[in-house]
Amino acid sequence: MSTDPEPTKQTDERSLSRKEFLKGVGRSALLIGIGAGGYAWWARITSQFTRRREPVGDARHNYSMAIDIEKCIGCGFCVEACSKENNVPPGHFRTWIERYEVMKDGSVRINSDDGGINGFSDDVRAEDVERAFFVPKLCNHCTDSPCTQVCPVGATFKTEDGVVLVDYDWCIGCRYCIQACPYGSRFWNPVKRTADKCTLCYHRIRKGQVPACVEVCPTGARVFGDLADPESPVSKFMRENATLVMKPHLKTGAKIAYKGMSKEVV
Amino acid sequence: MAPQVPRLILAFATLVVGFLAFRSQVVPDSFGETGFYRADSVKEIGDLPMKHAGEETCATCHSDFAEATSHVLGGVACESCHGPSLAHAEDGASSKPNRLGGDVPCARCHEEIAGRPSVIPQIVLEEHTGGEPCQSCHTVHEP
Fold this sequence. Notes:
The complex is a heterodimer of chains A (about 270) and B (about 140).
Chain A: H1 7-14, H2 18-50, E1 63-68, H3 77-85, E2 96-103, E3 108-111, E4 129-137, H4 146-150, E5 156-158, E6 164-166, H5 176-180, E7 187-189, E8 194-196, H6 202-205, H7 212-216, E9 222-226, H8 233-240, E10 243-244, E11 257-259
Parallel strand pairs in A: 1-11
Antiparallel strand pairs in A: 1-9, 2-3, 2-4, 5-6, 7-8, 10-11
Chain B: H1 4-26, H2 39-46, H3 55-61, H4 63-66, H5 70-73, H6 78-82, H7 86-90, H8 106-110, H9 125-129
């Protein structure tokens, strides 16, 4: 009878075989992998709610435009320049000119043939017109804009520097915003198949240029600038002149200020 | 714990996780980072190409017109009549501004119509020109 302490058996019970050891390592690695992957996935999902970044538009600016109705001569160069600068499809307008004719009999005629893109010509006898004037119109870039409030998908919004834009890649084309705008400033762009509107030439003002309509206006009827800067042309213009915005009773916070606005327009 | 409770908890957890997973796939990357919109779209719109060069750019080569003619000094921009000309400013040879020939848009501003303020010199086209082109008598840059 042997008195061997059977050391091999004891060792076997305490230590792992190579196969079992590798199995354990593999399982641990898999678990760690699943855990890390799950965590990364979870972080990606939740970060969508918490991610913040510096906005592109600088909140220290508040871009706007002022319009001197008394200076507008109805040439339509602004409409033409806007259409070319922004590839606006024919028959649609980001900015347009309306002519108001207050007749001797008290009635008011408003005309805007092709948005005034080819200028205006007379279609009534001059002696029947008591008073007439041109009103350039565009998006008012409202502070409390109805259009951005109704968008169901967040495809239209106000930038930090005070410009209302449309995200053409994200717009689903439901056209609620077109109905919501009380100024008729929005239109359906049949080429992009989205809502479209004046961007205050955001691509130009971000590069330090003025909007195309302001650039080509031959009489200086359009004044562009930064309302946050007291020395900008628009701030100066609004200090020096009595101005009014369109439909102030709607409390949209319309920003485009008009000098010489008449009761027929408001 | 009743046996259906853990099953319900599991079912709800699956729904919530499933919803979050679906949402993370369909919501664009930069959405909500600066407000309820896609933050990248501001940059995309701001980076769109321009077409009008602006009078300062024109004046770098054409100062003879931009700084010395009464029409331009009076406030009429080069691109009011010549149209968008940034392509010309970037490559003068391959792209030319509009209206370098006879087609002048004088009547757009100077024809007498209802509503045009009297500070602008105005003419009744038929009486004034008699069918002659404006340039027969006027220099367009120095009318």
